[in-house]
Write a structure and sequence with these properties.
mainly beta, SH3 type barrels, five-stranded antiparallel β-sheet, 8% helix, elongated
Length: 103
């Protein structure tokens, strides 16, 4: 039984089902603990039922992004240049050659 309060970012394994999950949020007002399973599914437990679970703390999986089919990990993206310059530089100017005739 889970006799301790979980902390966000910690991974657990349910000893009955073998499923691994991470604590992603704790809502004290709603009294819920939100988890994300290794395969990407999201679920929640109420705080009272957390104490009845048979879970053990486990190491973070090597491939924590396995449940996010097609989404690259931040390490896999590499160096991506980000230009946070002046947004007006991206507006193409209106080219006008000639004269502006007034009435």
């Amino acid at each position: 039984m889970a006799s301790y309060f979980p902390s966000i970012g910690t991974w657990y394994r349910d000893t009955e089902t073998g499923q691994r999950f991470e604590i992603v949020a704790i809502d004290e007002k709603q009294k819920t603990i939100e988890v994300q399973y290794y395969d990407g599914d999201i679920s929640e437990f109420d705080i009272e039922s957390w104490g009845a679970l048979k879970v053990v703390e486990t190491d973070t999986p090597e491939d924590v992004y396995a449940g996010y089919d097609g989404i690259a990990a931040a390490d896999d993206i590499g160096d991506v240049p980000i230009n946070y310059g002046n947004p007006l530089e991206f507006i193409e100017p209106d080219n006008f050659t000639g004269y502006d005739e007034l009435f």
